[in-house]
Write a structure and sequence with these properties.
By secondary structure, the chain is mostly helical. Helices cover 39% and strands 8% of the residues.
Length: 103
């Protein structure tokens, strides 16, 4: 279920929406722009999303989706998937890294 919660948080992030947990509900910021399927999924998987958000921020997790990191990366870093979403939203071109082979 952790994967479903992460995917939902990434989908909200892709739409530029931050999800926050309040005592009795979720707050979507900005409000009113979330597509209906995302809002319904949040309703269906709200417990999993709330549990994941309770872990954040954490120095060993992506600040958006909670993806665990192999090393401490700090509270302002993204996992690769969320970083690519940020780059796409900003119109940045991300080129694959090409490694040179040793002779």
């Amino acid at each position: 279920m952790d994967t479903i919660a992460r995917d939902l948080l990434r989908d909200f992030h892709r739409h530029g929406i931050r999800v926050e947990v309040l005592p009795d509900r979720f707050r979507l910021n900005p409000s009113g722009i979330a597509p209906e399927p995302l809002r319904l999924a949040l309703r269906d998987y709200g417990d999993e999303v709330a549990a994941l958000l309770a872990l954040l921020p954490s120095p060993n997790r992506c600040k958006v989706c909670g993806e665990p990191s192999r090393s401490p990366v700090g509270p302002d870093n993204h996992c690769v998937a969320c970083a690519l979403i940020v780059a796409d939203r900003r119109g940045w071109t991300v080129l694959p890294v090409q490694h040179e082979r040793a002779a």
